[in-house]
Every structure is written in structure tokens, then in C-alpha cells.
């Protein structure tokens, strides 16, 4: 079914089908929210494209399903069926299956394993009037051609056109021929009449007779009438052209000729340049095929002299040409001509145009992009090495050259970052469906609003964001929004609001998810935490509201009383927090009881290249992300105090937790510098021996064999080849 | 052999067509993903022939065809259509399209159509 030549299109097919699938889902949800002609147009277009593409790839099962679906959308568009909840569910089930099929195709299958019969039947049964599959296009009501009877002096022709039986739209072929002929004269009438051809009924048998008045000559009319899928064109002239004489030409081809038909053709073509060939015997297509016994006859109307005609026809392997003048043209002799015969019209002069020829976009395999990124990272590392070598050996010239490389590498880096950025819509687009399904399951009414989907993020950040965001959205509907009756009782509209927005704020992308639900019950959270043994009653009482809310992110915490099918599969907000932090992001929640909650995610747009401060501790080098550093101060040992188990230090008026990092890097006698870091509005200090400098580095994640190491987010390789750990401030503070 | 502008809203179809036309020795001078772009590119590139999808966003193929015909009455436009769209194609022919091909595309048919329309 799917030939190997189609393999090259598979990736493209999958990518675009996914886009179209998303368009359909998104717009079905819009449609569900109310009447929207724009949405149904979008859906129809996407469904139509899916159908066409799957047909082109030979994925018959998918095409079958898409076709049935397209018909339903068509009926909706034509207002022939009503949009009901059941219909929406059916359509969503259909698009779900289509998504599965796309998955299967992506993995090399052809979608044929899917069972579509039930859905196709259901779609067909959903109230589609049969036999009405046309686009709702404006009816063609105007009369195509003026049929005023020809009283003019122009010669009149009867042209008989036969359309190939295999043609998929025979009537359209006939219309094309008529349209083309109209350029050359006035059409008097056609049989069958134009109205029949233009109408809906499929009654055309493939043969049309056209009467036309034209001074273009028979050959030009034949040329105009013929075209793709036209089997034959026959022309008869009615009346006569008084101006030009008619000649009968007898041509005899060398019997030895290997390609008699071809020779004859050339002769005919030469003659055609001199006049109008009215008829030929045997018919022209037979001549072209070589089906004649060495001699054939032509009748030509021309202003040229007989001698000129003879010379024109005397091409190689033509034995003799005899030109006999005729007194008058004898009407009624048909000229038959093969549809694929040469056409005579001069082509419009071609202009050469060079601008805008290039393709503006291309798709690139993401793995190639990743490899490229890795190569650039290596380049960054080796650039550092080169720099050091040049400095060590005081090679001025080399330093200059490296300066140039430096700039190129920096530009390359920035460019690469840009290329890797994709709009958040990639994951946002799926969310309306998630909200809908979750709300349906819970029996809630939710309006979902999204903003800022065009905000861009690095692909790797995007990958990591998908699951946590899904989780938060489900939570918002599941735990945030109340049931309609509860909302009404609380004086709120029955329909809850979930609001998702994204924006770029200098160095970060901020994603905010807000709901107008019940908000977080702080006392309930505390009680649950005590019950789970996360903290004691006393500790709970000392918590601020903010701290209490943050308990939600504690491992294993879940306030949902019942685990529903949709959210809360035993995965808590702690996993969400972990995922966001692994993206070098932060998550914050604020809540007002009775009014709703807001989750705010702060994410770096890209995570591969980070500016760090290189510090030394116990003769080892450590990198600390600049973004986390508030200040660097000198350390006074007398200001260190022990509060409980934690060492603290007094810095000006603040008492801040102090990390000596002995367990990580060993004890150092020489710590005299304090690096003050901040995370989530909490500051703490790291004691180090000295600050070496500041630079951009590529952070490589730790291998999965090592696993997650608390305090370390990854490693980086410095210019001199040293492998340096990058501190993860989030997990330390 | 002609200089051809391919108009279709999906890259998949454009690629498919491009390869077919390329195999027939034609030069693909441009691609457009909707009617508006098609009209703009036509003006820019003055191709010998346009393959025009019917169902597209922004401006559909029929509208684009009409616009192109307004600019250049001699424009050669071949409609790319699907079974079930006869009415649309008839409208297109009435509006000056010179030919049509039916999806799924068969390379010989596409090339034949293009050849014929180029010769017309």
C-alpha cells in the first residue's frame, strides 16, 4: 500500500497531521462553547487536509475515518445537523482515534490496525443527509456564455469532444474545453446544455457537442478544446471561408521509414504552420500511430502557394507530396486528433525572475539540533582552552584570532538558542481539551482562558514543562473549581474560571495559572500535614500562611479526599515542584480562601548556557549560577552562631543560614568570603575561600547513572579542562 | 518545462507536488501556504503556471484564482482538488482555471495536466 517512495514523506505527514489534529480539537471545544462559523471553517479545512493527506499516503483506514468525519463537519457547517453533546463526544472520540493512528504511522505503521468501522457507522448515523457531499459553494446561476444566435459573418464550427471515461470529473473537463473555446469565438449552443454540466446531477456521458462561431481556424479550435483526459476532438466547419483557398495534399511516406507516424507528424506540423488543416484521412491519431499504408491525405485551408506547401511537407523520409487545389471546401469531413497531440499556441514570453525563489522555512530533525547544540557547547569549552593557552604563552597574534572566533562562537550560540525556541502553544494547545475532559468527569463547569501562547521557550525546557503543567491544570479543575451548586451558593457564577497566561519578563518566562475556585484551606492543609506526620501540632501552629501553603509541595501530600480518575494518580505537587526545579525554575503559590489560587512558574527561557561565578573552596573549584547570587561579602568568624542544628551568620542586620559545604568539599581553614544566594525570597550564605571570576558555561546534566544529587545541578568543563560542579541553590536554601 | 508556483496550505502536499513536478523537469519557483500569499507571490514571481489548492485558510483557492486572473488574465492555474468538490472546481473553471488534478495525486496525471495547460 505505502510504497517506499512515500517513506520520505512520512515525517512530514505525521508532523502536519498532528497540527491539523490539534486544530480540530481546539475548534471542537470552541464550537462546543457556542456557535462560531470561524471555528467550523477551521475544522473543516483541517479535516479536509487530513483526509487528502492520508489518501495521498495510501493510509486507507485513516482516510475512511477522516472522510466520515469531514462529512459530519460539512453537515454542521451547512446547518444540517445540530451540535449536541453526544455529537461532540463522538467527534472527540474520532479525533482521539485519529491521534492514535498518527502515532501508529509515526512508528512506521499504516493505521490499518485501528478499528474504525464502529466510529464510521456512528458518524454516518449522526444525521448526515446522504448524497449531499458538496462544498456549500455559491450556486452557479449566471449563464456562462451568451447564447445569442450567431448572425455574424464568422465561420461556424461544430466541435465534438469526447472525455476519457476514466476521468473523475467528466463534466468539469467539458467545462474546461468550453471555457477554452470561448476564448476563440462565440459559443452558440452546446449539447448537453451548459446548465446540465454546471448542475449537480451526474448525468454527463462524456461526449459534448459545441457549436461555435470563430475566425480562429479549425486547428486553433482543436488545440483549444483538447486537454487532459480529452480522448478526441472532432471539428466540422459549417459554411465556408470565402477568403482562402483549400488544397488537398497527398503525402506518401518512405515505406522503409522506421517511424512512419513520426515522419508524418512532422510533415503535418510543418503544414500546420502555414494554414489550417481541416481534415485528414485516415484520422490524425491513426497517422500519428503509423496506422496508414504509406499514403495519407490532408485538406488544408491556406494563403500559401502550392509550391511552398509541397516544400514544407517534404521532410526526410517523405517520398512525395502532391498538392491539388480544390475549388471549394467540402464541409463535413471530420478531423480527428489525438488529445495528446502537439499544441500550437505560442507560449507567453518568459521573464526571468530571481528573487524570492528560495524556500523560507524548513523542518529540521530535533536530534540534529541537539547534536548541533552539543557541538557548539564543545566549541565554547575549547574556545576557553585556546584562550588560556594563548594567554599562558603570551601569543598576541593568536589572542587576536581567538577574539574573532570568540565573537563568531557567541553569535552562533545566540542563534542556536533562538532556533531552539518554540512557542508555548505547543503544549498550551492541548490544554483546553484537558480542562474539558476533567471538568466533564467531575461534573463541573469551567471556562478556560489562555494568553501568551506565543511566548517562546527552549525546547528542552518545554519538554520538561509539559507534565507539571498538565498536573497543575487538572488540579485547578479538580481541587480548585467547586461544583456549580456550591459556587452558586457562595454567590459566584456557576461556571468556574481557569486562567492560564505566559509572558516574558526580562530573564524569565512567567507562567501563571489562576482559578477562581475555593482556594486553599490553610487549616485543612495543616491538619493533613500533622496527620501525615510531616510536622507536629506545635510546629504547625508556628507556620505562617505562606509556609503552610508550601506544605502542599511536601512529598506525598494530597488534600484530595478521593482519588479521581483524572488527576491525583498518587502523584503530588512535590513532583511538580521537583520537575520545575530541575528546569532551573521556581514555583510559587498564593491563595485566598473562597476566592481561588494562583500558581506562578518562573522559568529560564533556556537552560543550556548559564552565567556562573567560579569560586574556590578547599582548593576545589565550584560554579554558582549568577542568577542566584545576591551579593558577595567578606566573612567575619565572630558573626557565626549556631541556632539549633543550623549554623547562621549575622550579616549587617540579617541572620542568615550559613552553608559550609564541608560534607561536599571537605573542611577548609581559609574560608573568608561569603556568597549570599537567594531562592524564593529566602537568602542564605555559602562560605568559600575565594572568588575566581565569572563566566558563561555550558551546564551538562549528570548522567542518569549517578542520579539526582542534592545540591548539584550538573557539571561544567572549564577552558583548562577542569570538571567543575554547578551548585543547585534551589535545593540548598 | 515551466516555472511553477505551488499553492497548498500543507507542506506535505507541497512537497509531494514539488517532487512530482521536479521529476517532470519543471522548475518550482515558489510556494505559498494560503491564497493571500499566492497572490503576492504570483505578482512577484510571474510563474508560467500555478497549482492551486482549493481549501485553504485566509483566502481560499477560488478567491486567489480570481485575484490572480484580475492581475494577469493569461494566468495558467491548475486547481488541486478532491473527489466531492466538483462544484468548487466548476466555479474555478468558470473563474478562469485552466485545469485540475484530483487528490490523491498520480504523478503521470499531474504531469500530463501541467504539460497540457502549459501548452495551451
From TrEMBL, chain A:
Enzyme class, broadest EC rank: transferase
Matching InterPro entries: Bact_Chemotaxis_CheA, CheA-like_dim, CheA-like_homodim_sf, CheA-like_P2_sf, CheA_P2-bd, CheW-like_dom_sf, CheW-lke_dom, CheY-binding_CheA
Keywords assigned by UniProt, alphabetized: ATP-binding, Chemotaxis, Cytoplasm, Kinase, Nucleotide-binding, Phosphoprotein, Transferase, Two-component regulatory system
Location in the cell: Cytoplasm
Residue ranges occupied by any Histidine kinase domain in the UniProt entry: 323-607
Alphabetical GO biological process terms: chemotaxis
Domain CheW-like per the UniProt entry, residue ranges: 609-733
GO molecular function: ATP binding; phosphorelay sensor kinase activity
EC code: 2.7.13.3
Phosphohistidine modifications at: 48
Domain HPt: residue ranges: 2-105
Principal subcellular localisation of the protein: cytoplasm
Catalytically driven reaction(s): ATP + protein L-histidine = ADP + protein N-phospho-L-histidine
Xref: PANTHER family: CHEMOTAXIS PROTEIN CHEA, SENSOR HISTIDINE KINASE CHEA
Name of the molecule in the record: Chemotaxis protein CheA
Source species: Methanocalculus chunghsingensis
UniProtKB/TrEMBL annotation, chain B:
In-chain residues carrying the UniProt-annotated modification 4-aspartylphosphate: 53
Membrane-spanning parts: none
SMART domains, sorted: REC (SM00448)
Species, as recorded: Methanocalculus chunghsingensis
Residue intervals of the Response regulatory domain: 3-118
Family matches, as SUPFAM superfamilies: CheY-like
Swiss-Prot/TrEMBL GO biological process terms: phosphorelay signal transduction system
Pfam families attached to this UniProt entry: Response_reg
Keywords carried by this UniProt record: Phosphoprotein
Protein name: Chemotaxis protein CheY
Top-level lineage group: Archaea
Cited InterPro entries: CheY-like_superfamily, Sig_transdc_resp-reg_receiver, ST_Response_Regulator
